[in-house]
Specification:
The protein is α+β, with helices and mostly antiparallel strands. The protein has one domain (about 1-95): Hypothetical protein Ta1206 fold. It has four helices and six strands. It has helices spanning about 45-50, 60-65, 75-80, 90-95; strands spanning about 1-10, 10-20, 25-30, 35, 55, 70-75. Strands 1-2-3-4-5-6 form a six-stranded mixed β-sheet. The longest helix has 8 residues, at about 90-95. About 30% of the residues are buried.
Length: about 100
C-alpha cells in the first residue's frame, strides 16, 4: 500500500509518501530543495550525490514524520541552516 499526501507550507507544498514494507513503512517527505527520509534510506548515498537530505528515525506514519526531529543530515542540508535536533516543521519550510 502507498499513502501519498501534499503538505501545504504557505504557498508551497511538500509531497509526503509512505510505502508499506512488510509490517514497517518507508517514509519520504520531498520538497523542491530536498527531502526528509526515514531510517530505511541511506544518508551516506545522499551525501555522495550532494543531496539536501535529512534523516529521521522512529517513525511509522506520515503524521509521525511531521512530529519528528532531525537525527542527521547531509552537508548541503547543513549549508541551508538545517541542524540535528531541529523540528521537521522548521525543515519543511526550508525544503518546500
Amino acid at each position: 500500500m502507498i499513502e501519498q499526501r501534499k503538505i501545504r507550507i504557505g504557498d508551497r507544498a511538500v509531497e509526503a509518501l509512505a510505502f508499506s514494507l512488510t509490517d514497517k513503512n518507508l517514509i519520504v517527505l520531498r520538497g523542491s530543495r530536498g527531502y526528509i527520509m526515514c531510517g530505511y534510506l541511506n544518508l551516506e548515498a545522499a551525501e555522495k550525490f550532494n543531496d539536501v537530505a535529512v534523516k529521521i528515525t522512529g517513525v511509522s506514519t506520515i503524521d509521525d514524520a511531521l512530529k519528528a526531529n532531525v537525527v542527521s543530515c547531509t552537508k548541503t542540508a547543513k549549508d541551508l541552516g538545517i541542524a540535528v535536533g531541529q523540528p521537521i516543521q522548521d525543515v519543511l519550510r526550508i525544503i518546500a
